Fold this protein.
Amino acid sequence: MNQTSPLIRIESVSKEYEGAAGGPGLSVLRDIQLEIGAGETIAIIGPSGSGKSTLLNLIGGLDSPTSGNVFIDNEDLSELDESQLARIRNEKIGFVFQDHHLLPQCSILENVLLPTLAYHASAGDDAVQRANALLDRVGLSDRLNHRPAQLSGGERQRVAYVRSLINQPLVLLADEPTGALDRENAERLMKLLVEINKERGLTSIVVTHALEWIHNMDRALELKDGILCRLEGRN
Amino acid sequence: MNRFRLIINSLLYYWRAHLGAALGTLFAVMALTGALIVGDCVDHTLRAVALNRLGTTEYALIHPSRFFRASLADALGDELSTTAAPVIHTRAIARKGDGTRSANSVSLYGVDSRFWSLGWEPFDGFPAGEESVIINRPLAERLSVREGDSIVIRIENPSVISREIPLTTVDDSSLAFRLPIAKIVEDRQMGRFDLNANQVAPYNAFLPLSFLQEKTGKTGQINSILLKGREDSTLTAEQITEAMRRNWNLDDAQFTLQSISHPGWYELRTERIFFDSRILHGLVQDTLQNSNSNSHMGILTYFVNEIRAGDHVAPYSMVAAIQENSVQPALYPETLNLDTNGIIINEWLAEDLNARKGDTLTLTYNVLGPMRKLIERKRTFTVHAVIPMSNPLCDPSLMPDFPGIAKTEHCREWDPGFLIDLEKIRGKDEAYWDLYKGTPKAFVSLQAGQAMWSNLYGDLTAIRFHNESDTESQIKNRITSVLNPADFGLLFQPVREIALRAVDRALNFGVLFISLSFFLIVSALILTALLYIFGVERRARQTGVLFAVGFPEKRIRHLYWSEGLGVAIVGSALGVIAALVYSRFMIWALSTVWSGAVAGMRFEMVFSPMTLIGSFLAGAVISACAIWFAVWRQSKPSIQSLLATHGSEYIPVIKSTSRGLWLAAVAGVSALALFLFISPDDATAAAGQFFGIGALLLIAGISVCQTYLSHIMKEGTNRNLTLTEIGKRNIGRRRGRSLAVIGIFSIGVFLTIAVGANRRDALLGADSRTSGTGGFAYYGETALPLLYDLNTEEGCNEFGLSRSDLPNLTVYPLRLREGDEANCLNLNQAQNPRLIGVNADRFSSLGAFQFVQTADGKIDPETAWKLLDQRLDDGSIPAIVDQSTAMWALGKSIGDTLTYTDENGNSFQVTLAGLLSNSIFQGSVLISEEHFMKRFPSSGGYRILLLDIPQADRTACRDTLLQALQDLGLELTPAGERLATFSQMENTYLSIFQILGGLGLILGCAGIGVVVMRNILERRSEFALMRAVGFSNAAIRRMVVTEHLYLLFFGLDCGVISGLTASLPALHFHTATYPYLSLSLTLLSILISGVVGIYLATASALREKLIQALRSE
């Protein structure tokens, strides 16, 4: 990692969706400029449909901007093909979604190890050790062989969080990770997320409605009408 | 954790979703394996039949018209250290003792114990002491007789001279015996013995060899030898040929060598009266020149009706054509300078005719015509010399052994086999006979004699040559060493090899049934792919996660495909097990309701483990390919849409609609190009081309549908919004599924029309000259040959009939050389198809039958039949065969050749010059009668009769003929019925295709039902919303049914248009028999089953309370 340059750089990124049958397009993001340093944690808030998830998807290489460029660790995502993007997602980025998206056919441990299989036929011993340690860290060491259906919503989301960390990414992208959880579980997850990210020096971008957690982030940004700005009124 | 584990976990977790796909695979593999098992059963049965019909016989020499010493078999057996069974084979008719039942095509064998030792199972043969007959099981069943019952057997009495030569008598042409049945012999005991490759068991009867030899006057003679194969398979054709050459002698060639009254002179003559002068040339070249003399001559002595000089006539005399080719010594020096117009007469004749040197004489003689007809000719000569009766030329031994003449004491005892007027014989003629016997009265040059009297049977009656240096025995040895037994048709055929080749090259029923199951297999595979992909689509969010955590697209597809491979393997394994039951059903059906497809053959349920393993692997691979294709075809949605998908509903973005149009354009242009290249004179090629055009139009149609679906998806329909319009738009949402539905229906309809159009009703239009019957009323075959022309009063008289008994009957007789039936009723591949000799002029003048292709492109019957009379540059013989025979049984086309061996052991080529459309001649190769007789002059008579009778006289004529010709074993079949027998097999295949296609259609309907249910389940929230805003369930149901009916109609349109295009040739050629009604009913049933399937699936899926779905959203 280059210490002098930001880990994530977003340059003049806009995103528009085509209108139906030649009608006017829908502009979701407009001329976004953003730089995020290594280990920096950022919260993004905004009303529904403001483009938060779109921005996260652009950073994560799940989508491509209509114009502008996204750099991760000095690599311009627009220059990469599908397979290179997949490798970036696998090695440098971890995702946590509002829904846990665990594979019901796999055990908790297997779900956590899933990303390690993208480029290897089987999970290595070190990956298994990491998975065990992380699951222990989130309090699920006794549920390793359970199936997702046997876990509570909060527990599943914690597994999803651990899954995002298994390949030791540089960046964690969390899209309303507590959106489907009750308050208690939401607090527990966010606490873990903040603590572990700090411990690991992980660059984190969290899209959230939970304003109470914003103060635990290095920066908080707000998306309004497709424009990203610093959140006003933040302590 | 590893990828394999992930795949196994997924397989187990989603087993319900995979079950449907596995069932689809099961059906495909079941159909595939079942077809291959049927193929195994047919192959096994044919092989068993082939081995049973030959026993352990490996080589066989069978010559229907040439007899040789039985001791030759002993000698061959000894020298070759194997069993050599001597046999007399002839055709026969068998009747039950009380005359109530009969079999007309019986093979009769005179055998001894060596024959039975060739069987796979021991058989005791004939009981000692009693004259009896042994028959095989099929003949016993046909006659409804058992051991101890008596039967009457009438056989064709073998004759060394063709019975068709009027010089022979016909009184003894058949013999009849009433004998008790000693035993009934089973198949494996040689009961099924047959050299022709056919799965249908022959009717066989067996008599003791010595009994048959005695009754036919062939003591010590046989016409067949069967050689048993050695256990170590070391018996070779070369060994047999060598052994034959070492052991045969002049008797086996039916030659006799005798010294004549002049010292040092010998004569070679044959029991067959005539022989080919080429033998003389061979002997002169190779043998006689090695002696100290080359004095030799060919002799052709003939019976003339009269010799006339002015008013003086000498009746019924022998005239010899003779010309010595002498250096030293000369036997008949008078003949050396005889020109072709000169004639030498003996003193007696000169006196009788009051003729002298320089006078003109006219010879009146008969030449041999067909059906024992004699054609009278005349030729004038100038007397070259008058020789005294003491001249060596006045030699009674110059007369050949004409039956009915040579051995008579008096002229009035002559019975030459043709009508002579004994009243013309004068006292001095009797006196001449008493004194000089058959001494020729006149002598012409050999060239002149051969110009007058050469015939199909030869152009010499004797060869005389001079040899003082060798003994008679040495000369005989020299002659037999020069002559080749094969030149006399004494040739061993590798019958086992031929039989196994006929099985090896037989129609592959496995492949045939795979073809017939094509639609079933395709439907099952489409269903497999559809159901599997539904399962994958349900896991859209999982796919999204895999993308999100960095799995490359290729790896994700690989994971899903690997899972699909597991489904394919399980489905295939289950399919193979199901196939064991399914194939049993197929075998049962082939033995009962579909027996027409296999000519009534019964099969054992036999299969090879390799068939199961092979079809399991093939099924797994094909199914995995279908799944791979389905996974590969999945348009990749955006990852975020996958992750956002609740359930599996995501709608792919249609970027371009032009690809389908391009494909449609390419297919359409290709179809047009193919149309422009259609050859109007080649109906076979045209049928294939039209099928190709239909298939291309089908592709074009489906591609247009694809474009339309894309257009709907992208642009909408630009119409007022109604429920129907919403339904129409919905079909574009899932383009792949919609296309699958259209594809299944259109392919089903296309195949139904294109294949079903070929169903034929042979009886429709059967009276037309250009139909497959040629317009003939009856097709008849006799066991024993017909020697007389039934179109004449004389011919009818021979059977105790008058022409008035057969009003308006015209008989078209055809010659037959037995061989393999090369038609669909023979499951083996014909190795030696039977030959029919036809009078091309008569068919030509009738304009009978219909040609589909000829070598010169002219398919008008009047000109096409004349192709048979052509002389081809390569020396081959032009032939006409039925198109089905050429295509399916022989695998030949116009210009291809077949190799035959004539009765003298010479091989000759037959070139296909014309193809008949679906005719009663299926199974045979037609050549001109002239060519036929040149190759098989001893065949003697006609065995196929085509009867032309007006409708009103048919029954009476048939009954009269059957009664009169019963001793010939005449069987008459209405020509239309014979044609229908062939069509029945084709129609049965079409029925099988339609039934299997029906199963495919059921699967297709099941697939459509699944698509409908899947579409509804994915859109439950949408329907719930519609319910919430006030739409009734019925309205929603109507909308869903409507949208799927669009797919059904698109499929029907594509299928009907392309199917009708493909069947245009059938429409053109078989307008009268085009199955409009059955096809319409089939299409209607397809439509109804589709509509019902859609309705039931819709009703079932919408039964759930939709509002709950809205809540769950």
Observations:
- Chain A is about 30% helix and 25% strand.
- The first strand of chain A starts at residue 8 and ends at 17.
- Chain A touches chain B at residues 21, 53, 57, 60, 62-63, 82-83, 86-91, 93, 95, 97, 99, 101, 103-106, 109-110, 113-119, 121-123, 128, 163-164, 167 (CB under 8 Å).
